[in-house]
Amino acid sequence: MSNIIAIQVPDIGDFESVEVIEVLVKVGDVVKAEQSLITVESDKASMEIPASHGGVVKSIDVKVGDKVKQGSVVLSVEASSEAAAPALAAVASAPATAAAPTAPAPVAAVSTPAPVAAPANAAVASAAGVSLAAVVLPTAGKLEMPVSTANLPHASPSVRKFARELGVDLTRITGSGPKSRIVQEDIQNFVKQALAGGAGASSQTAGTSLGGGIDLLPWPKVDFTKFGAITPQPLSRIKKISGANLHRNWVMIPHVTNNDEADITGLEDLRVTLNKENEKSGVKVTMLAFLIKAVVAALKKFPEFNASLDGDNLILKQYFNIGFAADTPNGLVVPVIRDADKKGILELARESSDLAKKARDGKLSPGEMQGGCFSISSLGGIGGTNFTPIINAPELAILGVSRSFMKPVWDGKQFVPQLTLPLSLSYDHRVIDGASAARFNAYLGSLLADFRRIAL
Ligand code: CAO
Fold this sequence. Notes:
By secondary structure, the protein is α+β, with helices and mostly antiparallel strands. Helices cover 26% and strands 24% of the residues. Strand 15 and strand 16 form a beta hairpin.
């Protein structure tokens, strides 16, 4: 024996009529007593209207946007005689066949239990001054205004519950519903974004909740033609690849840059002399070759710089492959000089020059850009005083070199001219401390100031 029960909106307190903003069930659903059926919203609060009885939903009498008040029929359920009692367990165990149509039965009009409320907006929530628990706990009798002293986002109780189940902090979400209300889809999108962002970041995000994700505003959409003529130009293949890598590295690695200066007065004299002596060899000795040699010596002294992070492990490398940024017409590439520790200055100069030419001609093989331990980005031939080079993951540091300049230095008796090379060392602060970076950079400077130290 079953009967049809029309479930009505109960006493909702001082509210004359409220708008239906969500219908949470559909025809054919088996609902339990106390289960939320619809969410309604006044200008002050949103609340869920729960079922007074369990059963199978036979018809739904409201839709989103309708105005309802106390006594409005929300929907009808067909309840068996046992299920008609508002006992949650009885309905929960009702067989699926309960959904089968039966002969028309008398319709009994009943009101639902007291609604469950949530604040319509933060201002109301904080004005109410009650505890946040009221948002989700059923209240007896009339609607009580829920609350919190904090700014609560605008979302219905069911959406709040959904967010709680997923551990999502609603204050991080911008609602796409009417009056910026957060709807279930906003939470699903937020979780999707967080998962997509976290997928490539396993070691970095380990132990971080979704609340620790990067929650950025959407990229500005501007119709540039409103302001003048434009010419769209696709990014080169190299720019697309290097851009994505640079972006990941910049976002995922906590960069700090230590700036220092090296006295290269003597080294530049040596370089010029060597080039004069080697004029016929066809190999031009570059500052880059000296830098590679000095960097290898510094990496030997500070092994944590010649390493990569793998989860909680530091992978210390026993080899010394040094990459250098090469500017090409199509964008930035980083060829790698392998086993730089086993090569002399002339060999390093020749190899870096060959690799830079190959890079500019677009002829580098993938293997020639792999296996680097540390990179150097030299803008010295172009200009600048200092800059922040972006670490080439999974390396832990990169040396940026700017244009050398003459500066007067006091030697105790007089000012003497000093050719000075700016060194900008960016390092991964998860592994390398500021003091270690300062020591590495200062040591590198001391090697460049007196290259004989490399032999020590
Ligand atoms: N200070 C002053 N002059 C410098 C210098 C410095 N730090 N470094 C190089 N120079 C001079 C050279 O002596 C050379 O002068 P001459 O022609 O009179 O001999 C001139 O600048 C050109 O040098 P170069 O840059 O061609 O040669 P290099 O070996 O120093 O560098 C390479 C080679 C591949 C690093 C360079 O060509 C290059 O591509 N640099 C750009 C790297 C880049 O884009 N970095 C940014 C990446 S984003 O972080």
